[in-house]
Amino acid sequence: MVTRRAECSCGQLSAICSGEPVRVSVCHCLACKRRTGSAFSFNTRFAENDVSIEGRAAEFSRTGEEGGRVIYSFCPDCGTTVHYRIDTPARSDRHPGGCLRGPCVPIALPVLLPREPALPVGRDPNRTFGDVRLKPLVASG
């Protein structure tokens, strides 16, 4: 059986995941952007019975857009989120894909949510998006 280990940056907190993930996905909702500090999150989901947790974890919970509670478990030393749960009838443990070590996981299934529009991309440094003026990342010239 395949085993993967999701681990925090300092190695104090880990989750050992047995078998193949139930689902692999990317999400670009605002909550995932805030959690990762990136444009999207890359997540793996394993059956709750296939995951064992080692180490100390602190928790943060919030109410999701559909009313379920989301509980994030992160390392109290380095702050890395190692796993999280969403209270739904189909219980599973979810892990940020970047924390996993071991065999590669399958290709991600995108989760496309209409709530977050994409920013326009172009060369015009004066282009605006709503009330926001986009600034070029690199000076032209």
Annotation keywords:
141 residues; mainly beta; 13 strands; 41% strand
Q: Would you give an account of this structure?
A:
With 141 residues, this protein is mainly β. 5% of the residues lie in helices and 41% in strands. The chain has one helix at 30-36, and strands at residues 3-7, 14-18, 23-27, 41-47, 51-54, 58-63, 69-74, 81-86, 92-96, 100-101, 109-111, 128-129, 132-133. The chain has a seven-stranded mixed sheet with strand order 6-7-8-9-4-3-11. Strands 5-2-1-10 form a four-stranded antiparallel sheet, with no helix packed on it. The longest helix has 7 residues, at 30-36. The N and C termini lie far apart (56 Å). The model is unreliable at 112-123 and 134-141 (pLDDT under 50).
Short description:
The chain is mainly β and 141 residues long. The chain is 5% helix and 41% strand. The chain has one helix and 13 strands, in the order E-E-E-H-E-E-E-E-E-E-E-E-E-E.
Give the topology.
Layout: E1 3-7, E2 14-18, E3 23-27, H1 30-36, E4 41-47, E5 51-54, E6 58-63, E7 69-74, E8 81-86, E9 92-96, E10 100-101, E11 109-111, E12 128-129, E13 132-133
Parallel strand pairs: 3-11
Antiparallel strand pairs: 1-2, 1-10, 2-5, 3-4, 4-9, 6-7, 7-8, 8-9, 12-13
Helix content: under 10%
> From the structure provided, what is the oligomeric state, counting identical versus distinct chains?
single chain
N-to-C order of helices and strands: EEEHEEEEEEEEEE
- Taken as a percent bin, the fraction of beta residues is 35-45%
Nearest-integer average pLDDT = 75
Distance between the termini: 56 Å
What is the molecular shape?
A: globular
Rg, alpha carbons: 18 Å
Question: Unreliable segments (pLDDT under 50, ≥5 consecutive)?
Answer: 112-123, 134-141
Q: Tell me the strand order in the biggest sheet.
A: 6-7-8-9-4-3-11
Number of strands: 13
Assign the structural class, choosing from mainly alpha, mainly beta, alpha/beta, alpha+beta, or little secondary structure: mainly beta
How many helical elements?
1
Largest sheet: 7 strands, mixed
